[in-house]
Amino acid sequence: MLIAGANKLESNKEIVDSLNVFPVPDGDTGTNMSLTMQSAVKEIKKMKNGSLGEIASSAAHGSLMGARGNSGVILSQLLRGLASSVKDKEKINTRDLAKAIKMASDTAYKAVMKPVEGTILTIARESADYALRIAQKEKNMLIFMEQVILHAKETLQKTPDMLKVLKEAGVVDSGGKGLIYIFEGALEAISGQMISAEDLDMVAGDVKVVDSDEHEDSNIKFGYCTEFIINTGIKNPDIEKLKDTMQVYGDSMLVVGSDELIKVHIHTNNPGQVLEEGLKLGYLQDIKIDNMRLQHRNLEDMENKESTYNIPKKKYGFITVAKGKGLVDIFKDFDIDHVIEGGQTMNPSTEDFLKAIEDIEAETIIILPNNSNIIMAANQVKEISDKNIIVIPTKTIPQGIAALMAFNLENSPEENEEEMNEIIKTVKTGEITYAVRDTSFNDIQIKKDDILGIGDSEIQSVGKDIFKTTIDLLERMVTEDSEIITVFYGEDIEEEEAEKLVEKIEEIYTECDVELYYGGQPLYYYIISIE
Questions:
Q1: Which residues, including other chains, have CB under 8 Å from residue 398's CB and lie 6 or more apart?
Q2: Contact at 8 Å (CB) between 196 and 204?
Q3: Total structural domains in the chain?
Q4: Is the pTM for the entire model greater than 0.85?
Q5: Domain that holds residue 248
Q6: Which of 161, 96, 149, 146 is nearest to 124 (CA)?
Q7: CA distances (Å), 241 to each of 238, 255, 266, 277, in order?
């Protein structure tokens, strides 16, 4: 069910992405949710077998490590609650599933500091409450899920009435839409709909992934991990018969089918004979044979060559997030330990942060997310890491740079956290991008491809010309208290064009210092800092 849900979401992630409140080219809810589900599935694939509870627990762990963006983090918490509810179950009925959906909803609500109605949380809660009501009488799992999905869709259509920004943008909640796709995928699995060849790879592709200690060279009984797909050319081939034939050749066998296709995975000492058995049923494709004994020896050689050094801990370490060569270089100039490549269209996962943290030997590690959609994932890392982590909730690149400027190596972590949190409140951020669809926002009519001026997360200026729209946005943001205007130009802007803009800004705002840097960021023509 989880794999089918992940597939359904993956197939429709662009639809979910398109429901972004702002009509800008960085709608990423569907992508983030899909990547989170793929991480859950990847964890499931590591299991040879397991109970329902163990599979759910693995999925929850995988989603936690792979959670991207706010929607991904909330989804990981839904799976966490679901896993908690079914941890002791071998199988479930409609009542059990209703309770699991309820636990999922409750867990997600608790994880969000300020829950907002009209979002994925609402869809989860309404689905859970409705599921509990109908489970008292409805015992048929297929009918039960159909009714829950129907109610979830009805609730989704009401989200614009719950959240003003949705109504103004003329869209329903994207996270809720994504959750419904997961429900629909689960329903397809319950109804027995056939999975595709790609799905077969998702189910069986990496079954061989186990802890390396379990495959000491001397303990490997069957040395070749053999995988292939048989195209039988006939409907519903006899998979059970093939299983009986194959099992004499090795272990860790998995044989699954879809229409005319059969996916085979087996550890064997005779891959040639296994392939011959497959050829008896049809032609073979996607053949993959790995020598596991050789792989293990290579791994041991690498481990033996590794040297261990006692690296003294420094006082502070830094992790930040940025996209664009210029912006990355700017942060590196601050001696940042890790600049994770990401931002609006590519939110880093919890695991991305954890990997960076593991590489830093520091008493205190400070994380600068630089995007409101990444803060939740960063805070989640803080909870699961055993290192001393401080998350400065920077929502923009200018805030991240300002926070670094306020940092003082001689201060205590508490003092630095206070100073950095205070300074980011004084920074205004302007962004220039383009509209990807027709819409309206705060009574402003927007047409596809219009140039948008976004000031502190609100659309403040709309036009047809990048130069004019930028100047218009600044007129709305710069005040008599403003002292410094910093312009970072993106990958789609020529340096000469950016210099002309800065000349005009200097001409208008003679009392301000104006600075220009190459940011190289995608999608956003300019990012502007006003201090």
A1: 427, 428, 429, 486, 527, 528, 529, 530
A2: no
A3: 4
A4: no
A5: 207-302
A6: 149
A7: 6, 10, 15, 11
Tell me the CATH number at 368: 3.40.50.510
Question: Which of 278, 302, 326 lies at the terminal end of a domain, its last residue?
Answer: 302
Alpha carbons 312 and 435: distance in angstroms, whole number: 50
Q: Cα–Cα distance between 531 and 513 in angstroms, integer?
A: 10
The answer as to whether 98 is a domain residue is yes
**What radius of gyration, in Å, describes the C-alpha atoms of the chain?**
27
Task: Assess whether 256 and 327 both reside in one domain.
Answer: no
Q: How far apart are CA 242 and CA 347, in angstroms?
A: 44
Phi first, then psi: give them for residue 206, nearest 5 degrees: -125, 35
DSSP state, residue 171: -
Which residue, of 372, 395, 424, is where some domain finishes? 424
> 220 and 347, same structural domain?
no
Q: What is the pLDDT of residues 120-171, one digit of tens each?
A: 999 999 999 999 999 989 899 989 999 999 999 999 999 999 988 888 778 8
Read out DSSP for 189-252? HHTTPPP-HHHHHHHHTTTT---GGGG-GGG-SS-EEEEEEEE-SSSS--HHHHHHHHGGGEEE
486's tokens: 């910093």
pLDDT digits over 363-421, tens only?
999 999 999 989 998 998 888 888 999 999 999 999 999 999 999 989 999 999 999 99
495 touches 466 (CB < 8 A): no
228 and 177 in a single domain? The answer is no
